[in-house]
TrEMBL record:
<keyword id="KW-1133">Transmembrane helix</keyword>
<feature type="transmembrane region" description="Helical">
    <location>
        <begin position="398"/>
        <end position="422"/>
    </location>
</feature>
<feature type="transmembrane region" description="Helical">
    <location>
        <begin position="132"/>
        <end position="155"/>
    </location>
</feature>
<protein>
    <submittedName>
        <fullName>Tripartite ATP-independent transporter DctM subunit</fullName>
    </submittedName>
</protein>
<keyword id="KW-0997">Cell inner membrane</keyword>
<feature type="transmembrane region" description="Helical">
    <location>
        <begin position="265"/>
        <end position="290"/>
    </location>
</feature>
<dbReference type="Pfam" id="PF06808">
    <property type="entry name" value="DctM"/>
</dbReference>
<feature type="transmembrane region" description="Helical">
    <location>
        <begin position="6"/>
        <end position="32"/>
    </location>
</feature>
<feature type="domain" description="TRAP C4-dicarboxylate transport system permease DctM subunit">
    <location>
        <begin position="7"/>
        <end position="413"/>
    </location>
</feature>
<feature type="transmembrane region" description="Helical">
    <location>
        <begin position="212"/>
        <end position="231"/>
    </location>
</feature>
<keyword id="KW-0472">Membrane</keyword>
<feature type="transmembrane region" description="Helical">
    <location>
        <begin position="237"/>
        <end position="253"/>
    </location>
</feature>
<dbReference type="InterPro" id="IPR010656">
    <property type="entry name" value="DctM"/>
</dbReference>
<dbReference type="InterPro" id="IPR004681">
    <property type="entry name" value="TRAP_DctM"/>
</dbReference>
<feature type="transmembrane region" description="Helical">
    <location>
        <begin position="53"/>
        <end position="76"/>
    </location>
</feature>
<keyword id="KW-1003">Cell membrane</keyword>
<feature type="transmembrane region" description="Helical">
    <location>
        <begin position="351"/>
        <end position="378"/>
    </location>
</feature>
Length: 423
């Protein structure tokens, strides 16, 4: 059995796609356990047969519609008018735009790919260092999985049997703290490097850009309002987001043409297919882990090391940050959440708090080499060598890890709003 898990780790380090690692390991465990292999495809299909998971492709589709539908320019223009007059203004606008877009897409990669093109070009035109422009873009994109809606929250809620609505509410304050702390860092760096700032926008310009961005700004209110008022579940709210984005892109702004739908649906299908395939092959893998009582053994191992919750949290954070450097967040959640649940329950760790902590730690992994997908995207968009983007991104770990530590050891930051609205 130990050999199987050593093989699992080795294949990951070798860079073999996680879907093949999970599938091969799962089949091996089935064979070693004398199980009928017919159970494997049954578990695979059952793993994706979940009502909450339906929200994932719909939020991805909503994000794609907004990227093509002229939403990003309007958001960035409003953010620039709002905070552009502060030293390093376009950097601040970059962060604010990411906070707004996070309330629409729910994914860091969508933020980097969508807003990044607009933001990096604007910053380079204003003589900002291109690697700094890329660094701000990729770092601020980590807000995407934290401010609701969040694809990671939907997945975690499904795996841990936790209210997705509670997770959405729990991400609001941490997401705002991430944005504010990064803006402080941008200001400090801008003063040191004498970056420019925009002229203070007149009240008229601010009003004009607000009007242009008004309907996109309503998206988070529509999604969260539908959930808070009990009109829709998170899954049903994702349908509302798609319909709203479709109306904005085709009827209101008229940016989406018939020819664009092929690309929109193709990209949505590719991203959705990759996520659901990982979820599917991880299901029989998780089934075998549960049958072999690996989660319970892990919980006992934690208890054997320490009974101090502080030490447990430090160990969990170290594990998540380390794995985030090498694995996709979806795969980490699917593998780890069922394993860690007994330990979390044994130490009475709030599952909503842990879901937000886990999502933020894994979001940091998106800007951490060697598998930081957002780093690669930012490097390509800015046309800057990857090593320069990595060096420029290092300072942004300070506010991000700082917020991670805060929400870990002050759980009320996460749990206050869910308890206020859902208690």
């Amino acid at each position: 059995m130990l050999l199987v898990f050593l093989l699992f780790g080795l294949t990951l380090v070798m860079g073999i796609p996680i879907v093949f690692v999970l599938a091969s390991t799962g089949i091996t465990l089935f064979l070693l356990g004398d199980n009928d292999l017919i159970i494997f495809p049954q578990r695979l299909i059952a793993g994706t047969n979940s009502f909450p998971l339906m929200a994932i492709p719909l939020f991805i589709l909503a994000g794609e519609l907004m990227n093509i539908g002229g939403i990003t320019n309007r958001i960035f223009d409003f953010a620039k008018a709002l905070v552009g007059h502060i030293r390093g203004g376009l950097g601040h606008a970059n962060v604010v735009a990411s906070m707004v877009f996070a309330g629409m897409s729910g994914a860091a990669v969508a933020d980097t790919a969508g807003l990044g093109t607009v933001e990096i070009k604007a910053m380079k035109d204003q003589k900002y260092d291109p690697e700094f422009a890329a660094a701000v873009t990729v770092a601020s994109s980590t807000i995407g999985p934290i401010i609701p809606p969040s694809i990671n929250f939907i997945l975690y809620g499904s795996l841990a049997s936790v209210s997705t609505g509670a997770l959405f509410l729990g991400g609001i304050i941490p997401g705002i703290l991430m944005g504010l702390s990064m803006m402080i860092l941008v200001y400090v760096l801008a003063v040191r490097r004498n970056y420019p700032r925009e002229e203070r926008a007149s009240s008229q310009l601010l009003w004009i850009t607000f009007k242009r961005a008004f309907f996109p700004l309503l998206t988070p209110a529509i999604i969260l309002g539908g959930i808070f008022l009990g009109i829709a579940t998170p899954t049903e709210a994702s349908v509302m987001a798609v319909l709203y984005a479709l109306i904005l892109g085709t009827v209101v702004y008229k940016q989406i043409k018939w020819k664009d739908f092929y690309e929109i649906f193709l990209r949505t299908s590719i991203i959705t297919g990759s996520i659901l395939l990982i979820i599917g092959v991880a299901s029989p893998f998780g089934f075998m882990l549960a049958k072999m009582q690996i989660p319970q053994l892990m919980a006992q191992a934690f208890f054997g090391l320490t009974d101090n919750p502080l030490i447990i949290w430090i160990m969990l954070l170290a594990l998540l940050l380390l794995l985030g450097c090498f694995m996709d967040a979806t795969a980490i959640m699917i593998v780890l959440v069922p394993i860690l649940l007994p330990t979390l329950n044994a130490f009475q760790i709030d599952l909503v708090q842990f879901g937000v902590v886990m999502s933020l730690a894994l979001a940091i992994g998106l800007i951490t080499p060697p598998v930081g997908l957002c780093l690669f995207l930012g490097s390509q968009i800015a046309e800057v060598p990857l090593d320069r983007v990595i060096r420029a991104t290092i300072p942004f770990f300070i506010p991000l890890v700082g917020v991670l530590i805060l929400i870990t050891f002050i759980p009320q930051i996460v749990t206050f709003i869910p308890r206020l609205f859902l208690s």
